[in-house]
Amino acid sequence: MVFQDPLSSLDPYYAIGDRIAEVYRTHTRVSRRAARARAVEVLDRVGIPDALRRSRSRPHEFSGGMRQRALIAMALACAPDLLIADEPTTALDVTVQAQILDLLHRLREETGMGLLLVTHDVGVAAESVDEVLVMRHGRAVERGPVADVLGAPEQPYTRELLHAVPRVDTPRVIREGARSRRGRRSPRRTAPRRTAPRQTLRRWTWPRRTSSWRRPACGVNSAAESGRSRRWTTCR
Predict the structure, then answer these.
(1) Taking CA 53 as the corner, what is the angle to CA 94 and CA 60, rounded to the nearest 5 degrees?
(2) pLDDT tens readout for residues 188-204
(3) What distance in Å separates the CA atoms of residue 100 and residue 86, rounded to the nearest whole number?
(4) Nearest to 34 by CA among 53, 51, 20, 49
(5) Biggest CA-to-CA distance, the chain
(6) Confidence of residue 40 (pLDDT cuts 50, 70, 90)
(7) Positive or negative CA dihedral for 217, 222, 226, 229?
(8) Where are the alpha helices (DSSP H) in 49-93?
(9) Which of 17, 21, 24 minimizes the C-alpha distance to 54?
(10) Using the 8-state DSSP alphabet, how is residue 157 labeled?
(11) Burial of 148 (0-12, 13-18, 19+ CB in 10 A)
């Protein structure tokens, strides 16, 4: 089985080759040397470059796509008749996702094993499987060849899944208040700007005949106190 998150599925303490050898020795009675050789063999089969050296690496030293390949190699170590892949491309980008899917198809053709792919991506299911089973709340809704189920669905839930897939040719819906095609915006209400009341500040001056700072005694005339004028009187 290939799990969804390879980083949490692999033990960070053990090397990749040791984990694969442990799985292989659990199901077959072989020596450690033979198990290590089998681990290097399956790592090289899934496309890990320099498999002998990388088999001694830890999971954090692998990229996301290489960790997923290591999980596939671990599942292939015992030559299973059925490989269950639970969301194997969820945490990968589009390029690595295509590489992992191509790897699964190539291994299926070479070994003749069956592939059970669990996915939420309708596009992945359309390009990767021969038959599809649509499930809802743990119950089967519709089953059949992938071309028939996705091309002409019979159940309403399957049609809703297909309508939920984003399409490029779908007309764009502009919301109210969003930017229009000409780059304008709909008018919005603006709150009136509030101005803070002015405050009277005291000034500091540099004296002419002394080398230290002094605070002059400044006064405000009666006109400034009454609000008719805001100028300062001379300092003494």
Answers:
(1) 50
(2) 555 566 665 655 555 55
(3) 13
(4) 20
(5) 107
(6) very high
(7) negative
(8) 51-54, 64-76
(9) 17
(10) H
(11) middle
